[in-house]
Design a protein that fits this description.
This protein is of the alpha/beta class. The protein is built from ten helices and twelve strands.
Amino acid sequence: MDDLTRRGVIGGVAAVALAGRAFAQTGTADEVVPLWPKAIPGDRGTRIVRKVNERAKSGASNDRWITGIDAPALVVKRPATPNGAAVLLVPGGGYGFLSYDNEGIEQARWLNALGVTCFILLYRLPGEGWGNRHLVPLQDAQRAMRVIRAGAATYGVDPRRVAVLGFSAGGHLAGSLATRHGEATYAPVDAADRQSARPDLAGLIYPVIGMDATITHKGSRDNMLGPTPDAAALAAASVERRVAADTPPVFLVHASDDGTVPVANSLAMYAAMLAAKRPAELHVFDEGGHGFGVRLAKAVPAAAWPTLFAAYAARKGVFPG
């Protein structure tokens, strides 16, 4: 059992007490960067306890689900030979937990092998007692992008080559960042907030996109907005309705047999991008299900998505050619 599982303190109170870049033990002495140097937006004094649920069976690879995000942070994963590209990784979990290994650690591993510096976003979960619950994840995502760019020289990355890659509900958050990056969701706290929160590219993998009852993932919608959101809240949180002229290129992946988040979500986003004349690429596979990350056998069609994403990012100038 590693230090993360024993203590469950990634980016917790001890890390927040450190100034600037913070280092905390997450199993491999990971570099942990707290997002908020002082007060966290929406803090109502609710006691939030970090919990790590190891779902892997004995001898299997880690499969940790994290809840109780008391102090949002970035976990930095640096490649042996950085090429200047960076990716903000946004794990999913229906806005009720974070799938840390499947959609964080394992994604950083293949991206690091390409020379890409990765930042795993530990974002707050809306239902854990924060004010303005519907804005909490987006506040963290905007701040994360600005912190990355503000520290670009330190991390060895090009601030003009920073992508976001989100999965399931994390895909909804990545899509929200791509379409709402300029929205004022919190009061600036330091010089980092003068940086742009716009990603240079957004990868949305089996994402939750729309809040319409016919296509949405009800758990994600309810966890973010509460059980009885009004029409205005639903419209504001529907990513496909927020596409505009400054939305960055979007790469979409879905499986037609996804029984959790309908493929109609990615189709709606792709149609919205085309209608706005924004660059987008969509890959729909007949097999893959939901939540596959990079765990599919090579024979399963959807297993090809990382190669396709890397090629798209290279064509768009985010990854080196």
